[in-house]
Design a protein that fits this description.
Order of helices and strands: HH
Oligomer: single chain
Radius of gyration: 12 Å
Length: about 70
Amino acid sequence: HVGRNLTEAEWNHGDNDAAIYEVNMEGVAGDKAKLGRGAMPPHKASLGSERVYQVMAWLASNNQSLKKLK
C-alpha cells in the first residue's frame, strides 16, 4: 500500500512542524487513523530524528500548506 500524496493541501493528523514530526516518529495507530486511511508505522527506529527532519524539509519545500510554528 502506498501512502497519500504529501504535496496536497489536506492534512489528516496535523498541519504544522510539531504534529508532522510526532506522526512520523510515533506513527498513527489504526484506531486513530482518519477517513479510513489506515495506520502508519512509526519511523523512530527506521529513520530516526535526523532523517525525519530531512523528510520535513522536503515537505516544507514541496507543500506550502505545511505551517511553521513560531
